Amino acid sequence: MQWAVSVPNFAEPADLVDLGVAAEAAGWDGVFYWDHLYAGPAAPLPVADPWIVLGALAARTSRIRLGPMVTPLPRRRPQKVAREAVTLDRLAGGRLVLGVGLGNPMEEFSAFGDDAARPVLGDRLDEALDVVTGLWRGTPFDYEGRHYTVRAAQFLPAAAIPVWVAGTTPHRRPLRRAARFDGLVLATVTPERGIDPVTPDLLSAAVEEVRRRRGRLAGFDVAVLCPAVPTSEEVAAYAGSGATWLMVTGWLDGLPGLIAGGPPV
Q1: How far apart are CA 201 and CA 178, in angstroms?
Q2: What confidence score (pLDDT) does residue 191 get?
Q3: Is 194 in a helix, a strand, or coil?
């Protein structure tokens, strides 16, 4: 089992970098930043661009895995993400994990006049993933989709960056999507409470669905988003259900103490 911290990007950039550096020093295996544009009228907070913060973190660390977790690919231009990701991965010496998802809340689309319908965003995410991974091959690439078109574009250097796809229980389409790539980030989110613990039963069902579609799980990561540090019993249950990463998150006022204590196991 590997341990990561999932850090909201509602803070000053330098403070987010310092948290990541502290996490490496304390023995955590990964640091991943949320990717939000703003916190909304109900929570007027400073927001930092996670991609720029990750560049600074890459320069100040040497061991931890890092990345956006998750970047809402449907609100990004996939060719720009492809270029940013390769640059960041090279700065980090091959430590980048690209986490992708639909995005949330939907106001981060609708506030700027973009279509926030989830089926549309799902289609855009699938096509954008085709474009990003196609450009990473380093050979001339063409693509024709409903939302994106590429004509004989060649991006160098080529790259092989792990892609983890986010999904919330009990939705199935993200599992089908994740099975095409390198990992799944599983969370349980409710409108009333936000992030809830993922139950081992839901985790087992998700892992089995991915296994059925891939045929095998070798080389595939399963990260569980945890709203608090799990107990040793919960860790054992997650491990038995197929988790390879536990990703602890929380609000920024509690993260420095959690990070300083190091991974629980």
Answers
A1: 19
A2: 61
A3: strand
Q: Output phi, psi for 40, to 5 deg.
A: 100, 160
pLDDT below 50 — which residues of the chain?
A: none
* Coil/strand/helix, residue 163: strand
d(CA 115, CA 97): 27
What separation, in Å, do the N-terminal and C-terminal C-alpha atoms of the chain show?
Answer: 9
Contacts 24+ apart (CB under 8 A), 222-225: 222/183, 222/184, 222/186, 223/4, 223/164, 223/183, 223/184, 223/185, 223/186, 223/247, 224/186, 224/187, 224/198, 225/6, 225/185, 225/186, 225/187, 225/195, 225/198, 225/249
pLDDT at 193: 61
Q: What is the pLDDT of residues 28-86, one digit of tens each?
A: 999 999 999 987 767 788 999 999 999 999 999 999 999 999 999 999 999 999 999 99
Q: Is 26 helix (H, G, I), strand (E, B) or coil?
A: helix
Domains of the chain: 2-260 (3.20.20.30)
**Is residue 8 helix, strand or coil?**
coil
Q: Which of 67, 72, 83, 84 is nearest to 108 (CA)?
A: 72
> Which residues, in sequence order, are CB contacts of 215 under 8 Å at separation 6+?
none
CA of 194: how far to CAs of 15, 190, 191, 249, 258, in Å? Answer: 24, 5, 6, 12, 20
Cα→Cα distances 245→2, 83, 161, 183, 227, Å: 5, 27, 17, 10, 14
Q: How many residues does the chain have?
A: 265
